[in-house]
């Protein structure tokens, strides 16, 4: 279980997060809503280990991992701006995490191609990501986040650049994988309907605190 315990964080003398606690069980998705600038991405970065909170802890299965480096958490963070590798093709972008884990490149590439096919990009595996539209880049980023079967999945507005049909399709794909793989998932979105469709619980981040919505 992923737990954020009494997280406090300031940015340039401004309190951004003020006593935020949240827990997510394996296979569960929770949603975070909130105005732009309210600190949603910051909270995900703290959960992922890319930032250290001023106070409070991040726990996994009861162990304090607040100071554990990101690569040792086995979490996947899908960034709001995708952060794909421009010098690699789609296949190697998606295969990256598997290769890092020591899986042979040929096997990693085969798995990446299979996942890209499920995301409607099978025919484009050898192209550079710089040639893709925003929605296509988003699908590559989603595949890259899912392929290593992380124990926690932190999604920062993952479906925002997609058209309605693809959005619904990928929401379903994600919900199924989250449940099947038993991942603890945190979904940041501005779309309350999407949040309600995917998440068992939802909170709004407001004034540095979480307010339960459902
Ligand atoms: N490195 C940083 N660490 C923490 N906060 C930052 C950093 N850089 C900028 N900020 C500020 O912290 C505030 C919260 O930013 P954050 O990205 O967490 O908001 P957000 O809720 O994700 O917003 P959005 O919905 O627009 O993505 C903003 O005012 C932002 O300018
Ligand atoms: Mg954000």
UniProtKB/TrEMBL annotation:
Boundaries of every ABC transporter domain copy: 2-213
Gene3D superfamilies given in the database record: P-loop containing nucleotide triphosphate hydrolases
InterPro entries listed in its UniProt record: AAA+_ATPase, ABC_SmlMolc_Importer, ABC_transporter-like_ATP-bd, ABC_transporter-like_CS, ABC_transpr_FbpC, P-loop_NTPase
Keyword Glycosyltransferase: no
Molecular function GO labels: ATP binding
Matching SMART domains: AAA
Record keyword Methyltransferase present: no
Name by which UniProt lists this protein: ABC transporter ATP-binding protein
